[in-house]
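Retro notes, structure queue

What went well: the backlog is down to a handful. What didn't: a couple of records were mislabeled last round, so from now on we paste the full input next to the output in the thread. Example, using Orotidine 5'-phosphate decarboxylase from Salicibibacter cibi:
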Amino acid sequence: MKPLFIALDMETKKEAIDFLDQFEEKRPAVKVGMELFYGNGPGVVQTLKERGHPVFLDLKCHDIPKTVERTMRTLASFGVDLVTLQASGGKAMMEAAKEGLMKGALSGQEPPKCVAVTALTSTSQRQWNEELLMEGDLKDGVFHFTDLALQAGLDGVVCSVQEVEGLRKRFGETVYTVTPGIRMAGSDAHDQKRAATPAQARVAGSNAIVVGRGITQSDRPVEIYEKIYNEWMGKIAWVNK
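Corresponding output:
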């Protein structure tokens, strides 16, 4: 799985479906975050899966291990492809999440991939040190959280493109990296502090990229999606081909 996930950061299911209808028969991979999920419930995921979209359910779970285990059991039953939790919840919590996903997976299907959020791409080095009171270089923190996630049996992490090469050197090619903060060269970075282009993500070795406003707020979303995806893959192709 090497997708470009479109972040559906919208308030209603209708907005999301109306947006995706512009892609006609194409079924790009999508990310459902807290805004869309909390406002509309599991039904939005069911609708997207019925339409044939790969779904990344990005709820960034963070709680005591038992609560996360039960939550992941439920999320797995939705048939989604990828889920997230916060690496800062610790190894025991991540192990419980993995257990919940295994228990909740639909019959005959693999459990969703699970990746741990290391440091948000909106987080700067200054915020890391001064606001979060995390010592040292932000990249070292990402590497530490990745080590914990892999020890817990997770598939990989959410990180910025800037950390991917270092992760490959430390942990090999098997760690699955999801990289938000993707922008075309010269475009508005919005609130992202550690952004990168699709080509930079490809060269670094990202397994999946996430793009939201760059596509969803464009007046030519399908054209922009194709442009970003072509740069990401280094060829003309669609996610589901």
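Agreed that this is the format going forward. Reviewer comment attached to the example: The chain has one domain: 4-233.
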